[in-house]
């Protein structure tokens, strides 16, 4: 009876674990130019930001549980998270062999990380809340 929700949780974590930190930790700042931001870019914009936004998404399910359990929006939004993989790969991930850097600015990476982490926490927690019901 819960196969859609169970698949959704597994798929959410598969996309997350396949992307974070495997791809995201290799991203380099394009604004640092040897300054202290180069040292703190990955710890702050990758790890700290991911954990804060993931926690925020998980906490939000205590206040708001949208979309509903039987809504088609929930599994579609979970499958749509696959789009984060090419988005992160088109950031300044080093070393580069074949793909160009399409999103040059660090702001793109940070925005993608916020959406990626928040959606991970919110959608996974939402599925786990709906499962026992």
From TrEMBL:
As for subcellular location, the record says:
Membrane
Q: How does it sit in the membrane?
A: Multi-pass membrane protein
Q: Where is the signal peptide?
A: 1-18
Key words of the record: Membrane, Signal, Transmembrane, Transmembrane helix, Transport
TM spans, by residue?
A: 40-60, 72-89, 109-131
- What InterPro entries would the database entry show? Eqnu_transpt
Top-level division of the source organism's lineage: Eukaryota
Keyword flag Ion transport: no
Q: Which Pfam families match?
A: Nucleoside_tran
Q: Which family does it belong to?
A: Belongs to the SLC29A/ENT transporter (TC 2.A.57) family.
> Which protein are we looking at?
Solute carrier family 29 (Equilibrative nucleoside transporter), member 1/2/3
Organism of derivation = Ameca splendens
The top of its lineage is:
Eukaryota, Metazoa, Chordata, Craniata, Vertebrata
């Amino acid at each position: 009876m819960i196969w859609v929700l169970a698949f959704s949780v597994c798929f959410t974590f598969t996309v997350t674990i396949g992307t974070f930190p495997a791809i995201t930790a290799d991203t380099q700042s394009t604004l640092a130019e040897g300054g202290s931001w180069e040292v703190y870019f990955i710890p702050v914009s990758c790890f700290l930001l991911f954990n804060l936004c993931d926690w925020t998404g998980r906490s939000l399910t205590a206040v708001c549980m949208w979309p509903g359990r039987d809504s088609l929006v929930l599994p579609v939004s979970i499958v749509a998270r696959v789009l984060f993989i090419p988005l992160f790969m088109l950031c300044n991930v080093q070393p580069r062999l074949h793909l160009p850097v399409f999103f040059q600015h660090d702001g793109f990476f940070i925005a993608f990380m916020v959406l990626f982490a928040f959606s991970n926490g919110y959608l996974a927690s939402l599925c786990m809340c709906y499962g026992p019901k």
